[in-house]
Amino acid sequence: MGVIDSLKGMFALLLLQAGWCYQKKQALGFIYALSVFYKYQQTNFFQKVKVIYDSSFNTNPYCSGVLLGITVSSPKISENYFIGLQHLYGSLGDEFFWRTLRPILLMLASIFPFCKYLITNEINLSYFYIISPAIFLIPFVTITQYTRYYWFFKATRVGNKAAISLANFLRKPLPLLYQIKAFISGILLILILCILLFGFSLSIVSLKNILGLLFIITALLFSLLRIFNKYEMSSYILIIGLLIFLIIKLL
After folding, report:
1. In the Cβ-directed half-sphere of 159, how many Cα atoms lie within 13 Å?
2. How far apart are the first and last CA of the chain?
3. Cα torsion 178, 183, 188, 194: sign
4. 8 Å CB contact between 51 and 79
5. Tens of pLDDT along 42-87?
6. Do residues 41 and 73 touch, judged by C-beta distance below 8 A?
7. Residue 158 CB: number of other CB atoms within 10 A?
8. Pair 99, 181: CB distance under 8 Å
């Protein structure tokens, strides 16, 4: 594939959901992206289009790159295999991006502006307007577009092998991300509770005490994660997160 065609394919993937409809879902957008590479696969292009259209193509948009790469690199695609990959990445992708990564970054972006409040008992609105959006957008855009395009190019080189690689990339971090989400949820909940009960009027302990306390809690957290890599640990980590701001407020 030429550089220009690859760039066209990358931009076409961004328009995957532009033609979304209830009957065929993302099929039109995916066929449009595939059509960029028509001259490389004229003999089997319409067989692939038929499989895509008949399957009512629908998956997580950030996982569409690997499917496009596999479709372009394979001489012929099996309808059952193609549908199976859609469902696999639809469930794994939604779990990783929508229900785990996005809430974690959103909560971090909500908590970060209050770091200065913990130290100086002041609120800096510029943190809300500038830094908070960046905390969410930069990591989210980086991870999602990396997933979309890295595995697209990898699939064009190694074909179906990229399917397993992407599935492992999405699956392996999930237990740890569940625990991190529970931990950050606890911090955010107690922060909201403190704001509702006390406002921003009470004094905060010294920076030295805060750093010492956070160091102990962080060490305990990672020790637990190291020893117990299980879903049920999320409950205990949630409790630790809930206690952080409450302890700081009461000291």
Report:
1. 6
2. 63
3. positive
4. yes
5. 678 888 888 888 888 889 999 999 999 899 888 888 888 888 999 9
6. no
7. 15
8. no
User: Which residue do the tokens 């996005």 mark?
Assistant: 102
Task: Collapse the DSSP code of 204 into the 3-class scheme (helix H, G, I; strand E, B; otherwise coil) and give the result.
Answer: coil
Q: What is the C-alpha separation between 188 and 40, in angstroms, rounded?
A: 52
The model's pLDDT over 113-130, given as tens digits with 9 standing for 90+, comes to 777 666 666 666 666 777
Report how far apart, in Å, the C-alpha atoms of 85 and of each of 24, 29, 39, 97, 137 are: 17, 17, 25, 17, 28
Check: CB of residue 226 under 8 Å from CB of residue 171: no
What pLDDT does residue 211 have?
A: 58
Which amino acid makes up residue 99? Answer: R
Q: What is the DSSP letter of 36?
A: T
Q: Rounded CA gap, 60 and 102, in Å?
A: 14
pTM score: 0.74
Distances (CA, A) of 69 to 6, 60, 151, 162, 203: 10, 15, 8, 9, 57
Rounded to a whole number of angstroms, the CA Rg of the chain reads 23
